[in-house]
Design the sequence.
């Protein structure tokens, strides 16, 4: 093997895996992990660490793996990242740590994500983790709204500082997007449950079936708790404003994935929640959620085509997921935009009318704007459509909360310490950022925990957080 | 833990359950709903609130056994526990002092009409309620409705009890006779459609309470989307009440039938398994 070659990661074969919902990447064995770890050049100034949003000490943990000290490696990661089994699986490493690895100059970067995942899995599967000791209660209480990655991270930090922490979750299951959104084949639910159980053992209290804003208000929480952290994510789907959007069997990606992941519709009728089963699925979008929806539809037995308005290079999905989708047989149509959904006499969708695009001038995001080509309309047949063109923060929390400042698209406005316009109320993750990543949400949770601690200890709150 | 403390059978397929849910009972308002899940393998279904008692910490729901989940729920008795109940969800009905109000309820919808009539009466409105059923043996909540209405008209389709005919006919007679300030209607979609048609002809503001398919009930999925005034709305967070004159009822009916085959399959399978067990 050449220096530039990665140690391959064992995976379920595409033929096998499209028939099940089990995890695709099986992960490194101890031997393979050590072999991959030995490729690390241990740069004196490691760019990978700069590329990591939470600055995990990457060369240090990789060195420990190379030496066979997997528990040591795990502890090293945990200094900066409380959920490595999750981030090892869902971070866009090619844009972060791995994208900066010097080995990219001669070949493939170190497989940092898979090494991170390996140590976390190794520790979990072999029961080697010691539950961190929690100090005596300092008499203060923090409420966290939402049990997704940002809330879990903040809870983990706060409980270790001596706070009593309660997480409120609207759904019946804990984990937020990690449970309802990301499919089992990419992030096994057992991994998420393990992390939640760990927090429970550390004394974090969880309350499901509580919709803050409806069941209780933030004002009520502020009476009982010393601070509140909002980590409610970006749960409201964007839909296309084109004719036929309400035809039957057109789902938002949220609905489609929630039915299958959270409600286990793939096991209908053993489980009560159904999901439509048909022949041809059209997935609209080019991000991770679109790939998740496409590969989920494939596993339900659909022939799948992804419709994306720009080109392959502009897709925002993780590279690994795009490759997995291609290997599994998902087809792609690039440079197309839907202009109408076509229905049959019963109001069920039967096709998507598209127009072809060419790339024009760059837009605000720096990406070249898709420009429709007149007269290029054509129809793709589909009896299932999933719209995966993004989500925005859910407004249910602050429908009746005029004091909480939000921006034009509903994102909560915070300062550099995650403080909102309401005294004692902090926010982070997708509720602030719109659609970002699990690792950034975790970073916000960690920053918020520090800021909450400081606020509760000093009582200091800036006069005006955000103008 | 959401324990059922009381269960009643109101008519052949319509049952009432009172559930311990103190947080919901404390916040509930007329027109709001809850989402419940029976057990680990259950689906999430929305049910609009009939009654609630903040002191006792209970909520009361009325449901009709139609599909698998409601049929199974019909077998739950006092002492049994539901896995999940979340709420109160949706916007409450806009209760104001309108003046003269007509509340129309059809079938199981009468349970919701009760909550709205009660709140309307309390707000100082003169409330005339019209409730309709297919026949005498399906009539329910008549005494409750009488208590919260100044006038009550009970209709049966076949004339076996009360006034013969549909609620829409009784409504038309009232509107022909004098001016009313508001009509609230809840029941089968087709009923709400025709109520709205009549009230539009009379130029009376109309609120309807819609019952689309939902999953999370908090604005996350869009399963419940309806077209109102040409715009896509999520009934769970923008409703469930909407301007009756703006709703696309035909689309709503179509979307409600989206899983007809799956519902049939699930119900048959459930009934078969229940037989085998028994």
Sequence:
């Amino acid at each position: 093997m050449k220096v530039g070659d990665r140690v391959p990661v064992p995976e379920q074969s595409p033929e096998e895996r499209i028939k099940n919902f089990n995890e695709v990447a099986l992960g490194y064995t101890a031997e393979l992990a050590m072999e991959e770890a030995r490729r690390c050049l241990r740069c004196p100034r490691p760019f990978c660490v700069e590329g990591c949003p939470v600055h995990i000490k990457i060369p240090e943990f990789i060195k420990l793996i190379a030496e066979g000290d997997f528990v040591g490696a795990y502890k090293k990661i945990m200094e900066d990242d409380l959920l490595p089994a999750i981030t090892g699986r869902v971070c866009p490493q090619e844009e972060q740590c791995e994208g900066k690895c010097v080995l990219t100059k001669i070949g493939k970067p170190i497989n940092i994500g898979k090494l991170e995942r390996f140590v976390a899995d190794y520790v979990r599967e072999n029961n080697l983790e010691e539950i961190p000791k929690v100090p005596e209660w300092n008499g203060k209480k923090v409420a966290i709204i939402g049990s997704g990655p940002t809330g879990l991270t903040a809870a983990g930090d706060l409980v270790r500082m001596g706070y009593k922490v309660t997480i409120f979750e609207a759904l019946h299951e804990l984990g937020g997007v990690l449970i309802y959104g990301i499919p089992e084949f990419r992030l096994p639910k057992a991994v998420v449950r393990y992390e939640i159980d760990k927090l429970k053992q550390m004394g974090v209290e969880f309350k499901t079936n509580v919709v803050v804003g409806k069941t209780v208000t933030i004002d009520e929480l502020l009476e009982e708790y010393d601070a509140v952290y909002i980590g409610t994510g970006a749960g409201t789907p964007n839909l296309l404003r084109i004719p036929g959007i309400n035809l039957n069997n057109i789902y938002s990606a949220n609905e489609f994935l929630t039915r299958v992941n959270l409600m286990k519709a793939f096991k209908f009728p053993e489980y009560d929640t159904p999901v439509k089963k048909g022949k041809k699925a059209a997935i609209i979008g080019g991000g991770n959620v679109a790939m998740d929806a496409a590969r989920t539809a494939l596993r339900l037995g659909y022939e799948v085509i992804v419709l994306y308005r720009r080109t392959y290079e502009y897709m925002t999905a993780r590279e690994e997921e795009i490759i997995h989708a291609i290997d599994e047989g998902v087809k792609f149509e690039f440079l197309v935009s839907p202009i109408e959904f076509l229905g049959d006499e019963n109001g069920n969708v039967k096709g998507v009318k598209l127009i072809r695009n060419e790339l024009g001038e760059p837009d605000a995001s720096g990406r070249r704007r898709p420009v429709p080509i007149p007269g290029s309309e054509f129809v793709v047949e589909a009896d299932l459509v999933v719209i995966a063109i993004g989500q925005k923060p859910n407004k249910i929390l602050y429908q009746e909360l005029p004091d909480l400042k939000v921006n034009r698209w509903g994102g909560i406005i915070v300062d550099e310490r995650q403080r909102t316009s309401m005294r004692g109320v902090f926010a982070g993750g997708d509720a602030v950022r719109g659609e970002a990543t699990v690792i950034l949400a975790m970073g916000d949770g960690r920053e918020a925990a520090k800021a909450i601690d400081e606020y509760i200890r000093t009582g200091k709150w800036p006069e005006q957080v955000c103008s | 833990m959401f324990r059922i403390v009381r269960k009643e059978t109101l008519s052949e397929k319509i049952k009432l359950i009172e559930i311990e849910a103190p947080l919901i009972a404390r916040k509930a308002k007329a027109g709001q709903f809850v989402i419940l899940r029976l057990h680990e393998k259950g689906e999430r279904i929305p049910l609009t609130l009939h009654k609630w008692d903040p002191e006792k910490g209970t909520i009361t729901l009325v449901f009709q056994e139609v599909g698998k989940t409601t049929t199974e729920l019909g077998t739950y008795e006092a002492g049994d526990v539901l896995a999940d109940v979340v709420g109160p969800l949706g916007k409450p009905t806009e209760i104001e002092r309108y003046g003269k109000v007509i509340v129309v309820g059809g079938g199981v919808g009468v349970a919701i009409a009760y909550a709205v009539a009660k709140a309307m009466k309390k707000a100082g409105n003169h409330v005339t309620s019209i409730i309709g059923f297919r026949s005498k043996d399906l009539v329910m909540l008549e005494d409750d409705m009488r208590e919260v209405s100044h006038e009550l008209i009970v209709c049966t389709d076949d004339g076996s009890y009360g006034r013969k005919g549909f609620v829409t006919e009784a409504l038309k007679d009232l509107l022909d006779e004098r001016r009313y300030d508001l009509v609230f209607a809840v029941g089968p979609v087709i009923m709400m459609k025709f109520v709205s048609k009549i009230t539009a002809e009379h130029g009376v503001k109309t609120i309807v309470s819609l019952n689309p398919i939902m999953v999370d009930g908090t604005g996350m999925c869009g399963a419940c989307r309806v077209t109102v005034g040409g715009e896509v709305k999520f009934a769970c967070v923008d409703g469930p009440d909407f301007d009756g004159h703006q709703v696309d009822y035909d689309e709503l009916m179509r979307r409600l039938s989206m899983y007809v085959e799956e519902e049939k399959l699930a119900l048959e399978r459930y009934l078969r398994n229940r037989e085998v067990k028994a």
